[in-house]
């Protein structure tokens, strides 16, 4: 019995010793070498930009179609047989280049006939004029009756009128002969020929022989809504749109690389649609613009004004609220709710909530919370590193970084 009690006591002492060893191990692992509290977590590295105001322009964007400045339907002015087509379908031609030739022989014969009639009329006028001159001398000597003199004067006048009629007939015949050679009235691109050699055409043809469009400049035509029209400055609203910035991009182009000018505002708004017809004029140096192409048009609205712009990555979302994180002089993060305006290509206009000089976190927003201590790195507003020698972050957007509405 004593031996059993001794073994029980020995086992209890061994358990106590084991528990004490575990507690000592835990204390040795969790306690720093020098004693005291554990070291604080390292500061989070973030990129910070200084808020600045800058001049921006509000933009309105529209969809439209390209239209030719000049479009001409080529129709025959005389009837006859086509003897020659001088162009390739779809070719570029200059003003005055020949397009079609109609058989000129009947019209040349008409010119010759008119010329002969003019010659005869001129000869008759010369004879009657000389006869009238003799009658005037005889009348002075009372050697001719007054009635005979009047007849000769009337004959001379009729001969002169026949000369004028013959001259007009000759001019008309020459004009018809000239119209047998159809030339380009403008410089531009010609469509396909609707009639080929050997076909008889008539001056009353309902279908044109071909069409031509100018290519050096084209219109971008679109519809502007009433509110946008009312927001335009006075000069633009009256049609003097030389100072209104207008740019355009085709369906396969990024942004709006083509610059133009406002050329036309219609004289009234359509009450059914609430829009007004607008045209912007664009140069076509590379010849890529064609009538009918889809065009994205960006039109400046109003005068430039001061605003704050931030990248989308610097703006957080808290349910229905939008916010940014500010860094103060002690490198402590704070929450700031902001009101946003329009957006353009990754930039957002901040309408309220920020002031010039505020330090905003532009990279690393997801890694921080209000009250955290951070290690800020000063960068530009777009998140790029400052260039050597920059004393302060430059404004974020490029010179044309303007937003749309």
Key words describing this protein structure:
alpha+beta, six-stranded antiparallel beta barrel, four-stranded antiparallel beta sheet, Elongation Factor Tu (Ef-tu), domain 3, coiled coil, MdtA-like_HH, MdtA-like_BSH, OB fold (Dihydrolipoamide Acetyltransferase, E2P)
How many structural domains are formed by the residues? Answer: 4
CATH architecture of the largest domain: Beta Barrel
- Largest sheet composition: 6 strands, antiparallel, barrel
Q: How do the SSEs run, as a string of H and E?
A: HEEEEEEHHEEEEEHHEEEEEEEEEEE
Output the CATH topology of the largest domain.
Answer: conserved putative lor/sdh protein from methanococcus maripaludis s2 fold
| C-alpha geometry | elongated
Pfam family, one: BSH_RND
Keywords: Coiled coil
Family: Belongs to the membrane fusion protein (MFP) (TC 8.A.1) family.
InterPro entries: MdtA-like_b-barrel (IPR058626), MdtA-like_BSH (IPR058625), MdtA-like_C (IPR058627), MdtA-like_HH (IPR058624), RND_pump_MFP (IPR006143)
Write up what this structure looks like.
It is a single chain. The protein has helices at 2-30, 105-140, 146-179, 226-230, 234-237; strands at residues 44-50, 54-68, 71-74, 80-85, 92-93, 98-102, 181-183, 188-190, 200-201, 210-213, 217-225, 246-250, 258-265, 275-283, 294-311, 316-318, 321-327, 333-344, 347-352, 359-363, 374-378, 403-404. With 405 residues, it is an alpha+beta fold. The protein has 4 domains: 46-58 and 305-404, conserved putative lor/sdh protein from methanococcus maripaludis s2 fold (Beta Barrel); 59-69 and 217-304, Beta Barrel (Elongation Factor Tu (Ef-tu), domain 3), CATH 2.40.30.170; 70-102 and 180-213, RNA polymerase II/Efflux pump adaptor protein, barrel-sandwich hybrid domain (OB fold (Dihydrolipoamide Acetyltransferase, E2P)); 104-178, Orthogonal Bundle (Helix Hairpins). A hairpin with a 2-residue loop joins strand 18 and strand 19. Helix 2 packs antiparallel against helix 3 (146-179). The chain is elongated.
């Amino acid at each position: 019995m004593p031996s059993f009690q001794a073994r029980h006591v020995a086992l209890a002492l061994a358990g106590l010793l084991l528990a004490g060893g575990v507690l000592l191990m835990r204390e040795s692992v969790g306690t720093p070498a020098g004693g005291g509290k554990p070291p604080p977590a390292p500061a989070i590295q973030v990129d910070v930009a200084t808020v600045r105001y800058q001049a921006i322009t509000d933009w309105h964007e529209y969809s439209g179609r390209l239209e030719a400045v000049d479009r001409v339907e080529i129709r025959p002015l005389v009837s006859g047989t086509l003897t020659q087509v001088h162009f390739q379908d779809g070719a570029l031609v200059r003003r005055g280049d020949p397009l079609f030739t109609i058989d000129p022989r009947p019209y040349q014969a008409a010119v010759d006939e008119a010329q002969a009639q003019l010659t005869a009329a001129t000869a008759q006028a010369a004879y009657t004029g000389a006869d009238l001159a003799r009658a005037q001398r005889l009348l002075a000597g009372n050697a001719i009756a007054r009635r005979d003199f009047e007849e000769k004067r009337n004959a001379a006048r009729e001969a002169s009128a026949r000369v004028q009629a013959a001259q007009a007939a000759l001019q008309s015949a020459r004009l018809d002969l000239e119209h047998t050679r159809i030339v380009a009235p403008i410089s531009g691109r010609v469509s396909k020929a609707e009639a080929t050699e050997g076909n008889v055409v008539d001056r009353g043809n309902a279908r044109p022989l071909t069409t031509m469009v100018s290519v050096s400049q084209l219109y971008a035509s679109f519809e502007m809504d009433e509110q946008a029209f009312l927001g335009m400055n006075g000069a633009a609203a009256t049609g003097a749109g030389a100072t209104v910035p207008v740019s355009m991009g085709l369906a396969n182009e990024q942004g709006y690389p083509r610059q133009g000018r406002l050329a036309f505002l219609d004289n009234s708004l359509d009450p059914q649609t609430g829009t007004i017809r607008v045209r912007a004029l664009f140069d076509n140096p590379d010849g890529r613009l064609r009538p009918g192409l889809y065009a994205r048009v960006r039109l400046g609205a109003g005068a430039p004004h001061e605003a704050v712009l931030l990248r989308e990555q610097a703006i957080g979302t808290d349910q229905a609220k939008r916010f940014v994180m500010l860094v103060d002089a002690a490198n402590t993060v704070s929450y700031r709710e902001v009101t946003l305006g329009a957006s353009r290509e990754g930039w957002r206009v901040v309408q309220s909530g920020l002031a010039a000089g505020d330090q905003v976190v532009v990279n690393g927003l997801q890694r921080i919370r209000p009250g955290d201590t951070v290690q800020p790195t000063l960068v530009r507003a777009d998140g790029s590193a400052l260039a050597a020698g920059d004393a302060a972050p430059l404004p974020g957007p490029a010179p044309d970084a303007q937003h749309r509405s």
